[in-house]
Design brief:
about 700 residues; alpha+beta; Glutaredoxin; Glycosyltransferase; 4 domains; 5-stranded mixed beta sheet; 4-stranded mixed beta sheet; about 10% strand; Ssp411-like_TRX; Spermatogenesis-associated protein 20-like TRX domain-containing protein; transmembrane helix
Length: about 700
């Protein structure tokens, strides 16, 4: 119904849209002229501070700003972006830094700047408005709203001329035809509310392998079988999709899906979305071959890709995947780790307004840097004329694994590895003399929680305790700095004003807590996971649906319920998985039933738009294939857990205890001097065994 309503808005109120400009995504450096200073100077967000010396009278998001708009009867500009957004920087330089633009904005509007990473709720509600109007959105996100916050217009990047023209037109219309503007804003606000009103669906769904396979076949239609990923000129890594696929190919006998997953993982690891000099992944590829990226680096991408390649290493045992885990962790711990021990949000794409300047190479630079086997270096990293990018530069990427390249070049793998170490050392020495892109140094709780889970996965896959130790340190830091009042913050940095945590902060921290419990067997993590889960239910439950609201605090023009998985998994899909895991651990039927109700309620969307709901597919796997609780009890628990952890075991929870405990999974199962493994399914446990192989044989799923 909301789609029809959006169409009605377009056809009835065409006057707004005649001034729309195409959706683009753009960036720049802040001006050095401090002739002007606005209220953003008192903020701590790097993105807001980049606009603190604009001639525009920017204010941060606040109720006071809207009260000011009401008292002066002015429209409000809400301009949303983030620090590493390239086109946000461009619009700041070309438009918001200009005196003539500021004159129009200051005279006729109240002007609010929002860092979407600090206020994802504000971003979500107005992104929905832009998507209803245009069909898609992006950043910078620029919306013009009434003094009550209801949106009148929404778009993304605008040129200076288009922006001034748009503002003058909207200001004139609001003054001369306020009732028309109000009517449109009310209808658009109703459309936003409708989109977030998911209701309660009680129709039963029988989750079967047949139903799952039918939907997977629809999903396959959008697979790029040549280069991996999804079809399209821009490609995102989408870790939530890859993690689902790793579970699916482990449980099923789908050879095509396994080959496609392997292809995608190889190309993401080998090609240009990976930084071959310092490690770490860029945000996305701007071409279908994964060769040239958009150069910003985000914590949430790299955190999730640690999990992806840890799981992939368990499945495929490829040295390349282990290498990517190790190098990505080294990059994060070197560049993203703050003094407090938590990890910062992002690294900009630009240096002095030039995207990729830190990462690209001139041919003459490479000739000076690489003094040993330069022709081989060129072949490995594809330094060919056909691959020249902007400013006659090259971006390094590979297309073959070490073994494939060595076979084609007739050299030993040991020789290539030694050469790569030497090449990389020389490249790093040269690059590190350049100006590092700007950091967004705020600590975002949900993203750090993703990193904790990624590090736990890396520990389990590789058996290296440094990953687990780092995960525990980050966790301790977050509880110390962001859980002071026993309520999570969303983000923090020095001198920042604390904002209440959002749904994803609580949900991802619940998962991180249980991951740490499973890896360490320490009850403090289990207790905290349970506490976070219960707090989530108390703070974010929606009385009108089985889902959870994004925001528990400030009232916006609509509640927000997000269910689709994108560059991050949706908090609702992970909440449903948390309920399932803790439901199995505690034998809590209430949790299990709620998880199934959530999957049932989202089923229609999952089958209609399968590419957007990968982690709901993971939940469907959980409810389609057998689900096991594996409890290891006794003196050799750590050793046996480590052996289990070398295998990818979807549809299981793996827990252990070296002493007697009162949880049902452990009750009356401790035998002094012995260690037993209990494999349980639906509250029925098989005979205890002493070896991992015996336990695996007790599971019905043949791929284990």
């Amino acid at each position: 119904m909301y789609k029809q309503s959006a169409l009605y808005f377009v056809t009835q109120l065409i006057w707004v849209y005649t001034l729309l400009v195409p959706v683009v995504s753009f960036s720049q450096e802040p001006t050095s002229d401090f002739k002007h200073t606005n209220a953003l100077i008192n903020e701590t967000s790097p993105y807001l501070l980049q606009h603190a010396h604009n001639p525009v009278n920017w204010q941060p998001w606040s109720e006071a700003a809207f009260e000011q708009a009401k008292s002066k009867n002015k429209l409000v500009i809400v301009s949303i972006g983030y620090s590493s957004c390239h086109w946000c920087h461009v619009m700041e330089e070309e438009t918001f830094s200009q005196e003539d633009v500021a004159q129009v904005m200051n005279k006729n509007f109240i002007n609010i700047k929002v860092d979407r990473e600090e206020r994802p709720d504000v971003d979500q509600v107005y992104m929905t408005a832009v998507q209803l109007i245009q069909g898609s959105g992006g950043w910078p996100l620029n919306v013009i709203v009434l003094p009550n916050g209801r949106p009148l217009y929404g778009g993304t990047y605008h040129t200076k001329a288009d922006w001034i023209k748009l503002l003058n037109s909207l200001s004139k219309t609001y003054k001369e035809q306020p009732e028309k503007a109000t009517e449109f804003a009310n209808r658009l606000a109703a459309g936003i509310q409708e989109k977030n009103d998911l209701g309660i669906k009680n129709e039963p769904v029988f989750f079967s392998k047949k139903l799952l396979n039918e939907t997977i076949n629809t999903l396959k239609e959008n697979w790029d079988l040549k280069y991996g990923g999804l079809k399209g000129q821009q490609k995102f890594m989408l870790p939530a999709n890859l993690n689902f696929l790793l579970d699916y190919v482990t449980l099923s006998n789908d050879a095509q899906a396994k080959e496609y997953t392997n292809l995608s993982l190889d190309n993401i690891a080998l090609r240009g979305v990976y930084d071959h000099v310092d490690g770490g992944f860029f945000r996305y590829s701007i071409d279908e071959k994964w060769q040239l990226p958009h150069f910003e680096k985000m914590l949430y991408d790299n955190a999730q890709l640690l999990s992806v390649y840890a799981n992939a290493y368990k499945v495929f045992k490829k040295p390349l995947y282990k290498e990517r885990i190790e190098e990505t962790y080294k990059f994060l711990s070197t560049i993203f780790k703050s003094k407090s021990g938590a990890y910062i949000a992002a690294l900009d794409a630009d240096v002095n307004g030039e995207e990729g300047a830190y990462y690209l190479w001139k041919l003459e630079e490479l000739e000076a840097i690489i003094t040993d086997r330069f022709e081989l270096f060129k072949a490995y990293y594809n330094i060919f004329e056909s691959n020249v990018v902007e400013s006659e530069s090259y971006h390094l990427f590979a297309t073959e694994t070490n073994s494939e390249f060595c076979e084609n070049q007739n050299i030993s793998e040991a020789e290539l590895i030694n050469l790569k170490i030497q090449w990389k050392t020389n490249l790093q020495q040269w690059r590190h003399q350049r100006q590092l892109p700007r950091k967004d140094d705020k600590i975002i709780i949900s993203w750090n929680a993703l990193l904790i889970s990624g590090l736990v996965d890396a520990y389990e896959a590789l058996g290296d305790a440094k990953y687990l130790n780092e995960a525990q340190k980050i966790y301790t830091t977050l509880l110390k700095n962001a859980y002071i009042t026993q309520n999570l913050m969303h983000s923090y940095k020095k001198n920042s004003k604390p904002d209440d945590g959002f749904l994803d902060d609580y949900v991802f921290m619940t998962k991180a807590s249980f991951d740490l419990y499973s890896a360490t067997t320490e009850l403090k993590y289990l207790d905290q996971a349970t506490k976070f889960l219960n707090q989530t239910k108390e703070k974010f439950s929606d009385n009108e649906s089985v889902f959870y609201k994004f925001n528990s605090g400030e009232k916006l023009i609509s509640k927000i319920i997000t269910t689709n998985d994108g560059v991050q998994p949706s908090a609702n899909s992970i909440m449903a998985q948390n309920l399932l895991k803790l439901g199995h651990f505690y034998y809590n039927e209430g949790y299990l039933n709620e998880s199934k109700k959530m999957l049932t309620a989202i089923h229609e969307k999952v089958t209609s738009f399968p590419g957007n709901y990968s982690q709901w597919f993971t939940l469907q796997l959980n409810m389609t294939y057998p689900y096991y609780e594996i409890a290891v009890v006794g003196k050799d628990t750590p050793t046996l857990l480590s052996e289990f952890n070398t295998m990818h075991l979807p549809n299981t929870i793996l827990v252990g205890s070296s002493k007697t405990q009162n949880q049902e999974l452990f009750e009356s199962r401790f035998v002094a001097g012995e260690t037993y493994i209990y494999v349980c399914e639906e509250k029925a446990c098989k005979l205890p065994v002493k070896t991992v192989n015996e336990a695996i044989n007790q599971m019905e799923t043949e791929n284990y």
